[in-house]
Amino acid sequence: MEYTEISGTDIKVSRIGLGTQPIGYFDKDLGMQTIRKALDQGINLMDTAPVYGDGRSEEILGQAMKDYDRGEIIVSSKTGMEKVQGKGVRNTSPELMARTIEASLKRLGTDYIDIFHVHWPDMLQPAEETAGFLKGLKEEGKIRAIGLSNYSSEQMYEFCMHAEVNVCQPPYNVFERAVEVGVLPFCQKNDITLMAYRSLCQGLLTGKMNADADFKDHPVKSSDPKFQLPRYRQYLEAVSSIDALVREDHDRNVLDLAIQWILGHNNTVALWGGWKPEHMEPVNDVFGWKPDPETRDKVRDIVKKTIHNPVGPGFLEPPTR
């Protein structure tokens, strides 16, 4: 495992973090085993949020953490979302954020959260007020670092005028590369750690999915256009071609390439989602190499030639209250 420090802090994190969103929707015991397996693999970063299974992900993580020294685990969670008629809605009002952090602390069984993100930018709330609230939490010792999830570079710039931002958490993977134009350069220029989610694109980039899979009951894939025909087959073809390329040129596989696509940049962390302990088995196999510029160009060419109607992660965006 490789480790890095979160910008502007003394928080040392594994460069691969466990994304616990799926744990909030599947078997509790398997989720507990997955967290323990991740820790055994050297992963000390656990990313969660109140909306993952309506708090269930945080509860399971909190229960698992009872068996460990709290200082050994870096907890990353979020605020700024509420459920309205069963749907997630952006809300970074101080009142809502005050309620959500107290609820998160209780579910997690801790008195502080290491990295606390605004889950989505709220266009109805002044950035100055949101930043001021998080600064206050940091001064109280309830959080150790401030993160912004799903923010554009322009939105981060405005937020940074009012508070120090330590982490940015955008969707980023081989198929969803919009951050390479704005967000990633902004983070590099301003010394902000980039913590990528959807690193494996909901499992597409593991190379283990097949054309006959049924996703109608999956909490995320069911609404992701990538997993709907005929587009799904195009993505599978791209995965197969990328896998063949990196096997021939580097004796690696598509999963290795997917994670190193992110870790090949300085000051980055990749979140690896999983809800079964076996999902964590390949974690340490991805280290020991980096894709060179020529390989990256070849991968981009494969994606461009194979996927005729690509889509980004826009389907994830929640409405404004």
Describe this structure in words.
The protein has 321 residues and is of the alpha/beta class. The protein has a single domain, classed as NADP-dependent oxidoreductase domain (TIM Barrel, Alpha-Beta Barrel), CATH 3.20.20.100. Helix content is 35%, strand content 17%. It has nine helices and twelve strands. An eight-stranded parallel beta barrel has the order 3-4-5-8-9-10-11-12, surrounded by four helices. The chain has a two-stranded antiparallel sheet with strand order 1-2. Strands 6-7 form a two-stranded antiparallel sheet. It is globular, with a radius of gyration of 19 Å.
Could you provide a short overview of the structure?
The protein has 321 residues and is of the alpha/beta class.
Domains (count)? 1
Order of helices and strands: EEEHEHEEEHEHEHEHEHHEH
Helical amount: 25-40%
CATH-level-2 architecture? Alpha-Beta Barrel
Distance between the termini: 41 Å
Oligomer: single chain
Domain NADP-dependent oxidoreductase: 15-291
Keywords: Oxidoreductase
Organism: Methanolobus halotolerans
Protein name: General stress protein
